[in-house]
Amino acid sequence: MKIAAQLYTVRDFTQTAEGIEESLKKVKEIGYDAVQVSGFGPIDPEKLKELLDEIGLEVCATHIGFDRLKNDLDSVIKEHKLWGCKHVGLGIMPEEYRDSAEGIRKFIKEITPIARKIKNNGLQFIYHNHNVEFAKYGDKTGMDILFEESDPEVFDFEIDTYWIQAGGADPAEWIRKVNNRMNVVHFKDMTVDGWDPLMAEVGEGNLNWERIIAACKENEVEWACVEQDICPGDPFDSLEISLNNLKKMGF
Asked: How far from 204 is each of 63, 214, 231, CA to CA, in Å?
């Protein structure tokens, strides 16, 4: 399993082409050799390819907006092939699908032909969970519905360890549950401030990383993307702390 930086972590610094270049260089200097492209401002795909090659970074995955997946899929596929990136990610289903089992099933119906076209072009659709998917509808959670009723040939998962825990579930158990339907995982830790859960650098919180990493290895997960949506200080410092802690864990 290889480590990558999820660039949504540093999204405040990647809203211009200049900021993207500087951020990519910082991430490389920290010690990452791969990134997940997410939260960027406008940049020409060819220019991004040049920067990645020049700096020496691989793109392991992306997060693409649902509207682009629906209305600009040919361009999305072309960009991923240009970047040598196999995994086309969706960060969350649109809000109108999230509040009911029927909405989740409607989302599955709409995303399936998109995911199939992605698959037919040699790429793979991946879905990133939050905690909202763990609302219960009868005896099943929304995440259960996504897992059981989506097409396993074209619909893969991108388990986020923090959000699984925030949903009241077990990250290691879900990593094992999706099994061969996940090549990319999000590593994000959880701590608390009084009553409130907080995102933390990997290894600085309370998640059981021994179990999580073992589950990933058992299922031959290819990429672990370090992400921290909210950081206590400089997000580049948080990415560095997480990477250093993962090295101590054997990476």
From this structure: 26, 18, 12
